[in-house]
Amino acid sequence: LARGTAEPDLRGRHVVVSAGGTREPLDPVRFLGNRSSGKQGYALARTAAARGARVTLLAANAGLPDPAGVDVVHVGTAVQLREAVLKAAADADAVVMAAAVADFRPAVYATGKIKKKDGHEPDPVALVRNPDILAEISADRARPGQVVVGFAAETDDVLANGRAKLARKGCDLLVVNEVGERKTFGSEQNEAVVLGADGSETPVPYGPKEALADTVWDLVLRRLG
Ligand code: CTP
Ligand code: CA
Questions:
Q1: ipTM of the complex
Q2: I need a surface site. Which of 2, 26, 80, 140 has the fewest CB within 10 A?
Q3: Residue-wise burial string across 86-123, b where 16 or more C-beta atoms lie within 10 A, e elsewhere
């Protein structure tokens, strides 16, 4: 599907996309975060809207302008993102988890700024696990036939890691990026393989994030039937 000539093949569908990266506060001025730019998730939201879908974009700290014609819900933490995903997914045909969700959050939130103490080393930061949103919505679909898509950035044995993750999460599609220079974080371009729970493997050549987004929607549409 060429850009700029999008057919409204997602008309009548509601799709939910999460984008960006969650931030887990330590105190009022500090957080644990990650490098996700949000660009791939925003590209997914824009392309779905261009193809006629009703789009809910759950934006975690992306710092990007709200795309036109998209319902945007801004969230901060993984726990907030989970609430927003569960709410938006209730009537969604597809949910795409492009956000980088922090695996852990500080066990304790200090309501006042953490200060240095003379002559004392800092306390270690205790962490607890965040909920696994993708696994949860995959295991407990809000609607029959809802298509659930995850993203994974992997190194080393990228495809084997991706296959194992797809099975563990229970989603229908997993977009696997190889992490490397130039690729993925903050870049305008991306290269990926989309793995299907049906055993399919769709390579997407290095190119704009919109092209990968359109391939994801093509694969989602095929599964929606
Ligand atoms: N994800 C999620 N909730 C989490 C962690 C991840 O919904 N707590 C989603 C991400 O949005 C992404 C997919 O799961 O779509 C894969 O994320 P990834 O970090 O690769 O998976 P993990 O299971 O956390 O594996 P790893 O230990 O490799 O980080
Ligand atoms: Ca993770």
A1: 0.99
A2: 2
A3: eebbeebbbbbbbbbbbeebbeeeeeeeeeeeeeeeee
CATH (residue range 14-111+124-224): 3.40.50.10300
Residues in contact with ligand 1 (CB, 6 Å cut-off): 78, 97, 99, 101, 103, 130, 132-134, 150-152
Q: Which of 21, 152, 151, 17 is nearest to 85 (CA)?
A: 17
Is the torsion defined by CA of 45, 203, 200, 35 positive or negative? negative
Q: Which atom from ligand 1 is nearest to the alpha carbon of 130? A: 8
- How close is the Cα of 104 to the center of ligand 2, in Å? 9
Residue 225 burial (10 A CB sphere; 0-12, 13-18, 19+):
exposed
The Cα–Cα gap between 52 and 49 comes to: 5
Mark the residues whose beta carbon lies below 5 A from ion ligand 2. Answer: 103
Tens digits of residue pLDDT in 68-83: 999 999 999 999 999 9
DSSP symbol at 186 = S
Q: Which of 49, 72, 136 has the alpha carbon at shortest distance from 101?
A: 136
Tens-digit pLDDT profile for residues 21-62: 999 999 999 999 999 999 999 999 999 999 999 999 999 999
